[in-house]
What we know:
alpha+beta, NAD, RNA_2'-PTrans_N, ADP-ribosylation fold, three-stranded antiparallel β-sheet, RNA_2'-PTrans_KptA, 212 residues, Arc Repressor Mutant, subunit A, Probable RNA 2'-phosphotransferase, Ptrans_KptA/Tpt1
Amino acid sequence: MIRKCKEHGYFRGESCPDCGDEGRYVLDDDREERLGRFISGALRHFPEDVGIEMDPQGWVELNQLCDVMKKRYKWGTMERLISLVESDRKGRYEIDDDFIRARYGHSVEVDLISEYPENDLSYLYYGVSQEEADMLLDNGIYPIRQCYVHLSTSFDKAKEAASVHTDNPVILEVDAETAQQDGVDIVTVNDDIVLARGIPPEYISVVEESGE
Length: 212
């Protein structure tokens, strides 16, 4: 559920995490999920299919997206769209003046490397299944269904992400500092996610436990 605190803005849950106020109702769980799926599809996977125009960096006009959304969901409003973005703990989307885009997760071709700051962490992490590990160590990490490889900024975040797909993930460590010195572009999207077009195998090793 999304609600709005007068002092701290939109939040998800029963009460404002900053002050405990219950806030004003904006969106229930079912509509939040439905609207979230639509926005994800429109901004990451099939903008043309829903009738919106996307620029090379993934930006679309906020009003255009809202108009398309209202045709599908009569209850869709600009406030509910903005509340979905501003309350998202994972920082999936961003709004800049009259434009909106997904920060990551695109299957349509977009140029994000030039849009975000260069990664400043020496090491990054990537969780995979036991079956995938040897193949990636030999061949490198490259996107399959998305435009970019999504690396994690910590061992724990990589394990959390990989655990959605496999019960016993292998965590790979990427020597990002050396890779970037050698010309591999790696950019920071948010506190948890870093993007690259691909990571060659010479920069990858296996991490057995957190902190090694």
